[in-house]
Each structure stands twice: as structure tokens, then as C-alpha cells.
Amino acid sequence: MSLTHDAALSPSAGRRFRAYTTKHLDELTARAGLGEAERLAVRAVATVLPFRVNSYVIDELIDWDAAPDDPIYRLVFPQADMLPESDVSRMADLLRRDASRQEVNTAANEIRGRLNPHPAGQMELNVPTADGKDPLEGMQHKYHETVLFFPKQGQTCHAYCTYCFRWAQFVGEPDLKFASGEIDHLVEYLHNHPEVTSVLFTGGDPMIMGDSVLRRYIEPLLGVETLESIRIGTKALGYWPQRFTTDPDADDTLRLFEEVVASGKNLAFMAHFSHPNEMAPALVQQAVTRIRNTGAVIRTQAPLIRTINDDSATWESMWRTHVRHGMVPYYMFVERDTGPQDYFAVPLAEAYEIFRGAFANVSGLARTVRGPSMSATPGKVCIDGVTEVAGEKVFVCHFIQARDPELVGKPFFARYDEKAVWLSDLEPALGATRFPHERDPREDASALVGAAHP
């Protein structure tokens, strides 16, 4: 691996990280041209949903002449209409009269509780201890072969996405968080569960951690023979590429990546890119090259987000760019049923057309991507198409991944609904009364899909 640095970078490339939070929000939204009432409404939303951005995003990614319509601005800055008008007015009134912190937090928590802070039963996924009494904090055995691990020091990000389904991790309420600092518990669990072949470090963002802390979590896994891959879910390439170029421990971090690959395990760098503009700076492209030079594989994924990337041309451009730089397009997700979903969600029928429009115009190298995919309670449900069967218009679906492995790869059908945005909005088609994932496990699964083959 070459650890040389490219000297021809933007002036901000080597600057120290600087975060901007809610206390800077009024000044920044004024820069975007918002009036006083609009700025107050944005601050009201930010009392409920988290806000954090950094100097790189501010200086290098946002086109301030186009704000507040610039896609990167909308990606990181709260919008006044992201919450119901009554909730925004309530929080704005509290801010206007300078209410106490306790009063503001009480009102904010009441609103958060209505926003489904833990979709897909996240809190119920924590794995049990050996005696089966208490869950091991910060670990989720979500699928048969995959365990998710939430390192305690990785429960923040370089910047927060307005659409993030893990927003509850960042609002400062301990009861809404799940994280662990006990890597020994994970190693023991993996030894006791050889069916687990992949560990995903997630959060927050694991790449917020420095090399020494990251190494403390990753190195012990290299001796687990049954483990085939280590994944790191991160937005750092989009929001702070300096993590892999000019940060003081950038080189040490890349050496750790090399060690993972040298141990015989696959290191999958799960990079979140939500818009092509995030790939534009030369610094990002240099960071991508340096990570790939370690032997790690970069896979890219993002949700489909209304007002930010809800058109085929944006996704086509994004996938083409990723392939050009040696990355592997992986997922187009459907915005999850949490937080401001009503604001960001794209109907499934429209999502499918957006995906198909982009998919049809890229080469086979980009067609590794899957979607639109819903990470719902029973698993990852993909909308494969819209067609007509026996005179009925239906969605054709299948499970890419499922908590019940027997469901993986098996097609099923849902009634076409142009307004549906999530699995819970769909109904079984072709005379079926339940979906395959809703069946009684004692029943023959074929009886539930038999109606599809009259």
C-alpha cells in the first residue's frame, strides 16, 4: 500500500475537524437565506431530531448559492416541515419564550415517542447472555449468519443525515441508545455461534473512532476462525474523507485494514453515499484509492430520499461514478418507517420506477446493486417489479435476507398500491390471506403462495 499524500488538495483538506451543532444553527440557516420565522421553525425541529455538521461539509459540499434547495444542504440541515405543523409550533413556542431545558426535553421526548424510534424491533434484537436472562448490550444477531455490533465510542457521526433511521442514538436519551464496549462478549458469542460468518460494525459511525480504539475492537476478531468477513458501516467518505488521508492516524488506520485482509478475512467497507456531489471533491477520490489499496472492498449504499435523490438520473450518475472509482454498488434502500418518514418517503411504485430507470442505463458492473429494498422486521424485502397476474396488478417481491432463512429468495406477491411506502402498507395478493413471513411456522409455506399458481 502506498501511504503517500496528494499535495494537490483543497485548502480545507488538512484542517482539524470542527463540528457545528444546534447552537450554530441560526447563523447557518441565515446564510442559506432563511427568514427569522423560518429559522425558528428549523430550530424547533432540531430540538426533536439531531443536528450536527462539520467544516468539510459546510466548505466543500454545500452550494450555498443554491441553498436551501441544494441537495447536500437538505441532506444535513433540518427542514421546517419535517414534523407535523402542530409539533413544530409547540416547540417553537417553547423556544420563543425561553422555556427551561427540562420543559423542552419533556416535549421533545413526547414527540420522539410517536416517531417509532426503533424500527424493525431493533431493541428486541439484542442477543441474550449465556444464561439467557439479560441481553448483551450493543449486539444484535439480526440474521442467521450476521451479527451487528455497536461500539460504545462510535455512537456519533461526523455529520448527521436528516433521514437517518438511527436518529434516536443521537438525541442524548440513554433509554434510546444501544451500544457496547465489551468486545470480549462479542468474541465469546462468535465462538459459541459458528454459524455467524460476518460481523458488521455500525452505530453511529465506527470511523468516528481513532485508530487505537478501532484496533481494540477489530484485532480480537482476527483470531475467530469461523468469521469470514468484517464490515464497517460508515458515512466518513462522504462527510470526512480526511479520516483516511490527512488525519494524524489515517495511515495507522489503513495499516489496520491491511492486517484484516492479511488475516484472510474480507474487509467490507460499507460506504454511504446519498448523492453524486459527495464524490466530487478530489479528497474523496484519494481516500477511496487509499482504502482500496489496503485490499478492502468498498460497497456503496443509500436510501432513496424525497427531495434529495428521488430521480433515476441521480442514481445512475452515482452508480457510474462508484464503478469508475472501483467501488461496488450494493443497495438502494427504502426510507425506513421512523423519524420524519412522511417527509422523506417515496411510494414503492415510484421507487421501483426510479430504480429501474437507473438500472437500465448502467453497465453490468453496476448491476450488483439491489433494490428498492425495505429493511423491515422480517428481513430485507425487495420490490422486483410490477406486473399483472391472473388479471390482478401486483408487486413482485422477494426476501434478499430474512430472519427466517427459509424465506430467502422466494418470490411473493402484494396487491399493487400506488400510495404504499412500506411493507406494513401492503396486502397479500392473488387470494392469499397472509404473506409468507406471517404464516404459522407449522403450516406448509407453499399453501400461502399457492394462489399465485392457479
UniProtKB/TrEMBL annotation:
Q: Which cofactor does it need?
A: pyridoxal 5'-phosphate
Q: Which UniProt keywords apply?
A: 4Fe-4S, Iron, Iron-sulfur, Metal-binding, Pyridoxal phosphate, S-adenosyl-L-methionine
Where, by residue number, does the polypeptide cross the bilayer? none
Disordered, as annotated region = 433-454
List where Basic and acidic residues composition bias occurs: 435-445
Q: Which InterPro entries match?
A: Aldolase_TIM, Lys_aminomutase/Glu_NH3_mut, rSAM, rSAM_sf
Record's CDD domains? Answer: Radical_SAM
The answer on whether this UniProt entry bears the keyword Zinc reads no
What PANTHER family does the record point to? L-LYSINE 2,3-AMINOMUTASE AQ_1632-RELATED (PTHR30538:SF0), LYSINE 2,3-AMINOMUTASE-RELATED (PTHR30538)
Its recorded name reads: KamA family radical SAM protein
Source species: Streptomonospora algeriensis
